[in-house]
Amino acid sequence: MEGSEATCDFAEKLEKLFSGTFTSLGIITGLEVGLFDILSNFKEPKSYIEIAEKGGLKPRYVKELLGCMTSAGIVKIDPENEKYYLPENHRKFFDKSKSESCIVQYMELLPTLCTLREKVAKCYPLDGPKGVSPEQYKGYASHMSKVSAVYVNRQLLSYIDQVEGLTHMLESGVECLDLACGTGHTTVIMAERFLHSNFIGGDFMAEQLSVGRDIANSRNLTNVTLQQLNVENLPQEWTERFDFVLCHYAIHDLSNPENGLNEFRRVLKTSGIGLIADVNMHSKHSRNVDNHVASMEYGFSEVHCMPASLSFDDGWGLGAGWGVEYATQLIESCGFEVKMIESGKTVLYIVKKIAT
Ligand SMILES: C[S@@+](CC[C@H](N)C(=O)[O-])C[C@H]1O[C@@H](n2cnc3c(N)ncnc32)[C@H](O)[C@@H]1O
Fold first, then answer.
1. Which strand (E) or helix (H) includes residue 60?
2. Under CATH, what is the fold of the domain 7-94?
3. Of 82, 227, 297, 309, which one's alpha carbon is 20 to 30 angstroms from that of 35?
């Protein structure tokens, strides 16, 4: 068939994928045993024996793992003396305070994803379960909070800066709502930056909210409340209450995104600004071919976002790959004017209510 590559090319592609999986697993082990911290603290390349000694680890294990890390180009080796080092521009990926991206934290999810995968596979047969309920994703949710902590710190305020007039509005002191806030990192980051504004963060997973509450308390923030709520059925008295409403990477997780968007619209003031952040990819599979970010997002979605949404009665299972074309269409159909800004792997939908 047209477009098929030669068999040997395809075999190589599969090998590379399989190899990447082992490299990712090796990275997880490296993180667990402190390999990257040890390497980051050395100023000069070191032998595997010196590296093992520093970490109180068995040299034979360290040598094998370094074999995997060097052949994959994660750790570098000096061929003159077989000494290992972690280049400066690789170190920041393993250091949460400097992290360039949250990819390493995502990798740490692999073991949890493998157990979840078994539950998801059971949903495929026609007579199998509809989906996997959010309560079954406990390990996933707590881990995602770690990812969120790294990622949100780095990105969220820059998104806000990209929305005309929003930083000024939040600095002046307004009422804000963070829908499906998960652990509430997004809510807390905003509350800390915009002390004159009040922030409510809401999610239906109570366990996650307690993470954000502890952070807010430890930072003595009095302008943030995290509460358990269903985005698709917000309190009646909230109609036209909020000047700013955020939904960060969560519309696609709702059981019925249309209900969620209608509620978003109801609680946003007519003069207010809404911000929806989601994955930057296309809606049609044919437009995502050879896009490794898209395959990663579909993979996550297949194991979490979609089956969690489908577990509800009439759940849509929209999935993380709903894509910019369909997202724009759906958001507009719920009575919003939409301006889209691409910001790397994220797309920002800046929304304003169309008066009815
Ligand atoms: C991918 S997480 C994003 C969390 C957060 N916005 C962030 O960026 O860190 C999606 C969140 O949507 C929440 N969620 C899904 N459906 C919901 C609903 N109907 N009501 C409230 N929260 C919901 C999940 O519990 C989860 O915390």
1. helix 59-71
2. Arc Repressor Mutant, subunit A (1.10.10)
3. 297
